[in-house]
Design brief:
Radius of gyration: 15 Å
CATH superfamily: Class II aldolase/adducin N-terminal domain
CATH architecture: 3-Layer(aba) Sandwich
Strand order of the largest sheet: 1-7-6-5-4-8-11-10-9
Strand content: 25-35%
Distance between the termini: 31 Å
Largest sheet: 9 strands, mixed
Number of strands: 11
Structural class: alpha+beta
Order of helices and strands: EHEEEEEEHEHEHHEEH
């Protein structure tokens, strides 16, 4: 059984209307491109993987794909939610919308916390890309599990103290196949993943 997809933080969901449909469409566009490459989807055992978010301008809040949406081909606005507050030390997160946030929402929040210029975060799965990044670039500690306060703290450390902050992509050593990329826009974050993935395929 994959460990992906299970929420490990304390989640507070405030029922509210879906996020802005235009932003949801932009998120789904980038997600669809990565999903077509098998980097977002669902495993044979039914566990979904991969998630995507965009920061709301001038805020720590961000819109993220909801939990258990990896297997859905096309996401609509109701498949997204807005994270309005989170506390790494308390392992707590609040989201407002029609669905609970992805299990990796705390990690997305950590990226936004570590880098004020980050406007989008994407979490994908790729064995080949994950292996390459582990060998060539800074990664989170293999002892740290996904979706935990330790992972959030590790991400902040990684981005502030290593070249991962400049590269804007890194592997999660303790989360097999897990890769995180971010950027100043959704396009930038998506293309960082695709560029790195294509280089692996060319080898």
């Amino acid at each position: 059984m994959h460990d992906e997809g299970y929420v490990k933080y304390r989640a507070e969901l405030v029922e509210a209307p879906p996020p802005d449909s235009e932003l949801a469409a932009k998120l789904n566009y980038s997600r669809s491109i990565l999903r077509s490459r098998g980097m977002i989807g669902v495993y044979p055992d039914g566990v979904g993987f991969g998630n995507i978010s965009a920061r709301l301008a001038g805020s720590i809040s961000f819109v993220i794909s909801g939990t258990a949406t990896g297997g859905i081909e096309t996401l609509e606005a109701e498949h997204f939610t807005t994270v309005t507050a989170f506390d790494i030390e308390r392992n707590w997160l609040r989201c407002e919308g029609p669905i609970a946030a992805s299990s990796e929402a705390m990690t997305h929040g950590a990226v936004y916390l570590a880098d004020a210029s980050a406007a989008a975060v994407i979490h994908v799965h790729s064995e080949a890309l994950w292996t390459e990044l582990l060998e060539q670039s800074p990664a989170t500690s293999a002892k740290v599990e996904y979706g935990t306060p330790e992972m959030a703290r590790e991400v902040v450390r990684l981005l502030r103290e290593t070249a991962a902050g400049r590269l804007r992509i890194f592997a999660m050593a303790g989360h097999r196949e897990g890769v995180i990329a971010f950027g100043g826009s959704l396009d930038e974050a998506r293309e960082t993943i695709i560029s790195a993935y294509n280089k692996v395929l060319e080898r």
